[in-house]
Design goal:
The complex is a heterodimer of chains A (184) and B (173).
Chain A: H1 11-14, E1 23-25, E2 32-38, H2 43-59, E3 63-69, H3 79-90, H4 95-104, H5 111-120, H6 125-133, H7 138-151, E4 158-161, E5 164-166, H8 172-183
Parallel strand pairs in A: 2-3
Antiparallel strand pairs in A: 1-3, 2-4, 4-5
Chain B: H1 3-10, E1 29-33, E2 36-39, E3 48-52, H2 64-77, E4 81-86, H3 90-100, E5 106-108, H4 115-119, E6 123-124, E7 129-130, E8 132-137, E9 143-149, H5 158-172
Parallel strand pairs in B: 3-4, 4-5
Antiparallel strand pairs in B: 1-2, 3-8, 6-7, 8-9
The chains are: A alpha+beta (184), B alpha/beta (173).
Chain lengths: 184, 173
Amino acid sequence: MIRTFGFKSPKKLLAFPDARRDHIMGPIEAPIKLVEYGDFECPFCGQAYPVVKAIQRELGNSLCFAYRHFPITTVHLHAEHAGEAAEAAGAHGKFWEMYDILFQNQDALEDEDLAGYAAVLGLDADRVMAEILAGAYSGRIREDFSSGVRTGVNGTPTFFINGVRYDGAWGLEELLEALTRAAA
Amino acid sequence: MNKHKIYEKMYPKGLRAVLTRGDEAPDFSLRSTPDQWLRLSEFRGQPVILAFYPADWSPVCGDQMTLYNEILPEFQRLGAALIGISVDGVWCHAAFAGDRKLHFPLLADFEPKGAVARLYGVYRDGDGVSERALFVIDSDRIIYWSHVSPIGVNPGAAGIISALEELRERRAA
């Protein structure tokens, strides 16, 4: 399940979507590549969530979007399990469905909430919770986190546009402009 | 570094040069808690990350110290100790560290204010705070890498990790 991450490759490549391991939406060969390092409990990531959705609608197939975990677990006590719940759903092809639910319910991320969301997605909630409590996906989360540390993630959300950290505002207009510029 | 140079750095007339690779890291002793002092030279034999930052209590998610707290296990895997330094007093640090659940020491560069920041060339006269500056100091107390960010930009940890990995490779070689 967990694939090794190419830490030996040039660091810049780390900030591009990697079809072999990442959860991606949009064609991998799309001209615009957006990677987000996020935390399901982070309120700023919650604000960025609808912005990313709008950007995906706007750019369609010219955008490849990848989401990686960067939970700040010391201040966001539910972020780790929430991330693992997304991975557990991902193991059944439902990562993005869980991603939507989590970002739409940031104030309800207790374990029992996560179990409920798993059930809503038609997953075996008991099994998902057992996997989470056993840390079945914690390695994957750490791997994402580590890659973020090495590419210069400095908080959440951090976006990389075509491999370059985007330090600007992440309102729809600003982000869309930066992405469009990257495509030109 | 001789006393005169230290004195010069402590009482600058203008912009001081930031200490960089190859400079000896000036030793210092500062309070880490109301009743404890921490001396840089206590860390001999181990790389140290000195992270100067302007002030406690910056916004949560983008906060540099909170980020480093989360990355602390990676720093420790690379054998390094992490120390945060600002001009805030010990009680302020205690409240901040408690709130953010920080697992590394925050030193109070409080009296004389900013003296250690001046030693490292990263005090902002007029602003009364230090720069947002990073120093990776090797186990012989020589600065291996330093970096000053624009004061409002969280530099992240990529530079620190690279420096620590290089130090580890150097030790292994």
